[in-house]
């Protein structure tokens, strides 16, 4: 607890990619025990918010109970057989006291390692849940993961370039299997390329500067209607809804994980004054920014 009985703020830790092996593979496969050891070596509290610059694919094998995981304010429960996808830029954290008894495998890789990777940046706000509702203990998925794990551990059996290429293909097979095993939308949308892909990248770059879809359309050489159609096809939201969701997500991150005032956050997100920011936030969340911060932190307002 902090001053006046308030809970301590949990700051976001930005985590860069550091390979486990000395070879520059671009990806790693590790179990939960190695994850805990790596966190200790790097001084990273896995139960605190972290924002990795690389992809995560988490698979729970078993343990004494389910593993709870939070991804950008959404709580997920991973039972044995579950898969969870975390993209670069998303804020996530493990629940205390549950990682130690859990057993599982984590695959991490740098953006661009596989041909199916979308453009770098945070996951689109309109993306489906990162929890992948696949059939439990799917034989083909388990086999694909075992093959990837075996190849990863067999460093030196073939030339390094061939080893990396094999890992690239095997990870692609695993992701493809996940795409077709899950119910609902594909793991990677074909719309990640083209108009929506360019819009997504532009929003990631400029959402703190402009909140007008027309500005993005003009910069990208599309009409607003074209961007709206592409965004609807990819996410089910209009281009404006998608942009507003991205701004709202960043506002929530700043409110929960920093001590910035509403005025500071308004400025960082491109609002001309705090009143406009408060109006934007209340319209989309139903609460004032400080009310959201208070509820999320379990503390009293500070400004």
Automatic annotation (TrEMBL):
Superkingdom of the organism of origin: Bacteria
Record's keyword terms, sorted: DNA-binding, Transcription, Transcription regulation
Domain HTH araC/xylS-type: start-end pairs: 197-295
Glycoprotein found in the keyword field: no
InterPro entries (alphabetical): AraC_XylS_family_regulators, Homeodomain-like_sf, HTH_AraC, RmlC_Cupin_sf
SMART domains: HTH_ARAC
SUPFAM superfamilies found in the cross-reference section: Homeodomain-like, RmlC-like cupins
Protein's name in the database: Helix-turn-helix domain-containing protein
